[in-house]
Amino acid sequence: MTTEPRSRRDFLRLTGASAASFLLARPHDAVGQMVGGGGPFNDYRALVCVFLFGGNDSFNMLVPTSTNEYGVYAASRQNLAVAQGTLLPINPVISDGAQYGVHPSMPGLQSLFEQGSAAFVANVGPLIAPTTKAQYAAKAVPLPPQLFSHNDQQDQWHSLRGRTLSDTGWAGRMADLIRLNVANQQLATNVSLAGNTLFQSGDDTVSYTMGPTGPLTFSGFGAAGLQLEQRRAFERIINASYDSIYLRGFAEVQRRAVEAADRVSGALAPTVQTPPFTTVFPASPLGQQLQTVARLISVRSQLAMQRQVFFVSTGGFDSHDDQVVNQPNLLSNVSACLAAFYAATVELGVAQSVTTFTQSDFGRTLTSNGDGTDHAWGGVQVVVGQSVRGRRIVGRYPSLALNGPDDVGGGRMIPGVSADQYAATLARWFGIADADLSRVAPNIGNFTERDLGFLI
Amino acid sequence: MGATSADADRVIAIGYEAWIDEQLVRPASLELPHLQSIQPPPTNIGDLHRDRLDVWFRHAVNAPDQLKQRVAFAWSEIAVVSQVGALVNLPYSVASYQDLLATQGLGNYRDLIEAITLHPAMGVYLSMLGNQKPNPAANIRPDENYARELMQLFTIGLVELNVDGTPRLDAMGQPIPTYSQPIIEGFAHAYTGWTYAGAPSLPQARPTAVNQVQPMQLYPAYHDTGPKLVLGNVTIPPNQTGAQDLDAALDNIFAHPNVGPFIAQRLIQRLVTSNPSPAYVSRVAQRFNDNGRGVRGDLAAVVKAILLDAEARGPATASTGKLKEPLLRLTQLWRAYNARAADGSFRAFGAPGTSLGQGPLQANSVFNFFGPDFAPAGEIRAAGLVAPELEIATEYQNTQVTNTFRTYTFNRNSRSAGLPADAIVINIDAEAAVAADANALVNLVTDKLLAGQASAALRAEMLNLVGRYGVADVPNRAAQAIYTVVTSPEYALQP
Predict the structure, then answer these.
(1) Domain boundary residue among B235, B254, B273?
(2) Which residues form the domain of A287?
(3) Are B301 and B291 in contact (CB under 8 A)?
(4) Chain B contacts of A206, Cβ < 8 Å?
(5) Both B357 and B483 in a single domain?
(6) B237 and B144, same structural domain?
(7) Which residues share a beta bridge with A358?
(8) Are B227 and B87 in contact (CB under 8 A)?
(9) B130 neighbourhood in chain A, CB within 8 Å
(10) How confident is the model at residue B386 (pLDDT cuts 50, 70, 90)?
């Protein structure tokens, strides 16, 4: 039975031109139950997550150069192999017997590594428990669902949810755990410069999203006269009660936007006029985001910040096509941005207080689809900062042999260390108590090494 | 793309279903002819994307085939290709893809997925174009990109579904994956051998203005002829042609019981509500499975079922409807106020990705601007509900959109002076005529933009702000009233 529209109003409701709002209830209070305890931290620490969207082909970023190992690499990678002579040599303080080089487009990263300010974590990825090839084949251990799928594996890195339905991220849970310690902060612990991310989603805390150059202010809003009234009226409207959950959610974001825009923009304004560092950042979006992070860190005292997690990102790593052409540009940008950001933290005197780390959907198949690669599993990540025990390759660099002990097919590497171990190591440095690590990294109890040791 | 008074009057006159039937037979407004009419083409061919956006907005604001345009927009957020990335220099191809969605978006789904699969824009975007049979000596195997995303995002999803869209569970209470890696590899082999039409051979194919809008062509020497494992433990037999394999592969996917509930859920979310009840999904999925005349995949019947369902038009609850995405908030304003530049163009609105956080066929990835399962922390997540459009409603983007609306009300209206010739202006002449009377002005604006249903609180603020200007300050009184509505939460809801 079809009910015909009785009026224009009825029809407009159907097509989305109208809205009903009844002032019945106060907006939902997002603040939940308090946890933990303790006073303020006695120092400042920041984690900066650089997410490489699409799945970085990281076995071309850190490559074995010694004859035997390079031979295995080249045999697997064929037309996608980086030429042996072009790899930038590195000298890890602890050798696994092989020698390694960095992709030729990454001299900045090579230099950070050689000066002891960067480490590689080899073959890390989402796992629920340690997994061997035999266990994988026999389905003898639980695995993260939907391996090799972009959004599912991004979500694994962000949430470490394993096979549970958790919908918080590990940075969000860290912010939840320390929220009483950082009660005086003028800005959320979690700040994204690259849109909403599950990584920063908490139960008891909210993240704050700004643009690549910082927050925007509202045009036409001001401190006096009509401009002040514009702002006040806008605030009253978004503070009204709404029946619709969508509008309550929308208005809540608007409230945070209005509330933080002036304060954060005001704090940042002097850093635009008089930059607190001389380092020149790459003009790329990632460079812009990291430059803004450095500026935000420079005003940490004005905003009473003690613990911050920044999320920045760059995309294009899903190299199904034209990998040989595109990958050098992508890696070059990452290297230059990481180097510039590190240099800025040195200038700001916070290189020991700021740890930068990469994450990515997954590694890529060692085999080729002609001119590119497909979705795989484990990969190499980078950690940068003066608190990093640098010049190390943490974790076992896998055998890159096709159908070898680490390959589950097509050159997909089973991770040797888990994203939970990686996160737990970063979380402990950030100030999460050992007893709380399993709330940040829920599967950490399945692994013997709770701390991979790459941070001091 | 937003209702006008004329639309509303027409529906009231003839009824919902007759209005839909009338829309179904309107010819689709096409973008490609407009792009091809620009001669000579610009030196930097990527600049034509600006003209593509121009014609997209012309159709959104003015075209008579509103249902086809609206459904095409829905498909463009489900079967995503984007100007951002490999298609940046193939604007004709992206326009042609949009035209495909507008032309076939209300046809049969089996035909639609075949047309999508063979469209070079999708071929480039998800790299089926140029995909070759294996070369074991060089460790080369077929590209898995399209094989994976066609199933994950466009047809069946990751886990087996009941007809009402809820996941089927195994004996352990776990969801059941729809496919495995070997099945993806089977499909990847089936999709080998295709690239741009008219090339001497597959590796020699290069895009031209002509072949980037033609269906991809099979180059048999590059097609794998082995057997291919597909869904449901079926194996496509060896030694078939590429066209036979493609047919078999798409038939195999199309027959999967997930397609009905999966597509029902996706289209309902794009057109009506973020949180349809399982019963609503089931009613629409059953119409997908059989349109009543024994036909599977009849999208006109599916869209009718979606729009005419009691749940689409029943009494409002807290989770009825959905948030309107920024692009639709802008097109609604522009339709209600007959926006245009002096020459009718929308070319001046060149960077919607910045102004609105989204633009037509400009997503950052095949996962669209936002995901179907996004649930912000707080009451929405706690209630087990989702709000996909809220994923891009960040503090930053909301501010950007609010500021964009300030520009397109206060600074771009029919009373604004000194504007560039290409400025897109809203026509506020009717508002100006009554602007001295604040109540009449507020009534007129809320009638056009909120069907007269503004809350008392919003009306009070409109009157307050309008009253801050002198009675003679007609443009600002009108712009203020419109701005206050379009930046309000109420306007952001599709109820």
Answers:
(1) B254
(2) 47-215+278-446
(3) yes
(4) 377
(5) yes
(6) yes
(7) A50
(8) no
(9) 321, 370-371
(10) very high
Most B-contacting residue of A243, A246, A262 (CB-CB within 10 A), to test interface: A246
CA geometry: angle at B450 spanning B431 and B342, to 5°?
Answer: 45
Q: Is residue A271 part of a domain?
A: no
Instruction: Give the pair of three-digit tokens for residue B154.
Output: 């466009």
pTM of the predicted model, to two decimals?
A: 0.93
Based on the fold, state whether residues B225 and B333 are members of the same structural domain.
no
Report yes or no: A33 at the B interface, CB cutoff 8 Å: no
Alpha-carbon gap: B42 to the closest alpha carbon of chain A (Å): 26
Looking at the structure of chain A, the number of domains it has is 1
- Work out the end-to-end distance of chain A between its first and last CA atoms, rounded to an integer number of angstroms: 70
> Token digits for A165?
């339905």
Indicate which CATH number applies to the domain containing A168: 3.40.720
Per DSSP, what are the bridge partners of residue A311? A49, A192
Residue pointed to by tokens 């964009």: B404
Q: Does residue B272 fall inside a structural domain?
A: no
Interchain contact A32–B (C-beta under 8 A): no
ipTM of this complex prediction, to 2 decimal places: 0.96
Between β-strands A307-314 and A88-90, what pairing exists: parallel, antiparallel or unpaired? unpaired
Same domain, B197 and B340: no
d(CA B406, CA B399): 11
> Is residue B62 included in any domain, yes or no?
no
**Is A260 part of any domain?**
no
For chains A and B, what is the number of CB pairs under 8 angstroms?
295
Q: Do A2 and B493 touch (CB under 8 A)?
A: no
State whether A206 and B377 contact (CB < 8 Å).
yes
E-state strands within B71-124: none
B350 pLDDT band, cuts 50/70/90, is confident
* A8–B451 CB contact, under 8 Å: yes
> How far does chain B reach from its first CA to its final CA, in angstroms?
15
Number of domains in chain B: 2
Q: How far is A100 from chain B (nearest CA, A)?
A: 23
- Residue A247 belongs to some domain of the structure: no
The position carrying tokens 């999508």 is: B116
Beta-carbon separation of B451 and A17 below 8 A: yes
State the residue range of the domain holding B207.
136-254
Please state whether beta strands A118-125 and A100-102 pair in parallel, antiparallel, or not at all (unpaired).
Answer: unpaired
Residue B200 lies in a domain: yes
Boundary of a domain, candidates B200, B222, B254: B254
Distance from CA of B267 to the nearest CA of A (A): 15
Distance CA A345, CA A341 (A): 6
A323 is a domain residue: yes
Q: For residue B321, give the nearest of A246, A366, A372 by CB distance.
A: A246
Question: In chain B, what percentage of residues exceed pLDDT 70?
Answer: 100
Sorting pLDDT into bands at 50, 70 and 90, what band is A370? very high
Instruction: Examine the domain organization and report whether B353 and B479 are in the same domain.
Output: yes
Tell me the mean pLDDT in the region A441-456: 97
**Per-residue pLDDT tens digits for A89-104:** 999 999 999 999 999 9
CB atoms within 10 A of CB B233: 7
In a domain, B205, yes or no: yes
Same domain, B328 and B244: no
Q: How far is CA B105 from the centre of its chain?
A: 11
pLDDT score for A3: 39
Residue A430 contacts B, CB cutoff 8 Å:
no
Q: Which residues in chain A are closer than 8 Å to B148, comparing Cβ atoms?
A: 148-149, 375
Average pLDDT score over chain A: 91
